[in-house]
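Q: A small favour: would you put together sequence and structure tokens for a protein?
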Amino acid sequence: MAPTPETFQKVGAPWSPVPLEGIAESLGGAVHLAYARRPASGVVTVAAGFTAEAARTRAEVRASAVDALHLIADGGTQLRPLGGARELYLADFMPEPPDDTGGRVSGVGLLSGDRYLLPAEVVWTGERDSRVEPTLVGLVDGRPDGASGGIADLLAHDVVTRWWSHPRMPLLRVSAHLARLLPDGVVPEVTLLGLRVAAFVLPGPGFPIAVVGVSGDGTTIATAAARSAGAAVGEAFLRAIAARAQPWTTLPTADSLRRLTVWHRESDYLAHLERSAVDAEPSAVEEPARWEWTPSWADIACRRFGHEPVLVAAGAADEPVKVVCPGAAVYRTILPGTTLPCPVP
């Protein structure tokens, strides 16, 4: 079972507006874990980074975003009336949706700047009286341009969710190249601790998507999209490490059950990924050539989903908290009814 934050070694004092309760070193200092608990929601947020500062910053931003989403759901955030805003419905986000509850959250289009009213069920997180499965996909948890990270998260989960249902192309196995893809010192520490890392890359529409499993007394699997294979693998690896330390009781029920299934069916999941993969050529993990102009994440998402991504902000300072987008395969009413449910939400 995943450890609770109380098992982390606490060093130093809280340092930010978010009550950052502890930080621990994992993998001999090659990876750092930080966790935060917001008083409004009580949710424990765990984040990993290759430096202590990166882990702390992510824990702070992620905790603030989760807290803001809970306030929206509980009516603690006053939403501005938006004259002329375009209203979106659950039918815009998922096939065969349940009836809309009528709750609406305001957002702004990241390409057009247009205002939207969104169904609250695709925005908030945590347990609510709704038949829509809550999701943290698209949560803003980085700086300085967290919205781009939220869009990349949407794209990664969309591609992997669709691939898991219909694996029409093989994954590229990059486990043999981890020493090149992860920072110095990480791979030796993984080996010393008896952990195993299986890493794969799925070519996306103009960007690579990584799927990384960290196993050893249970498995966690995570995905990430980035401009390069190295960045995508590194991000997915950090997410998988953080997932190992996240108390499952702090997650929505559907996500907790998914992680429990993956944790206990370690061999089934890893065998499925290995059977679906072919060894990658060394060139597949090289840094991409730098072009004078590359499309933004918002442009990529709009082309893929047929709709611009929408940013939800909260608080007096309009801090960005989550990106949503109609057409992304991350909004659903129930868990997929397959033998092995997709390991990522």
The two ends are 19 Å apart (CA to CA). Residues 52-73 form the longest helix (22 residues).
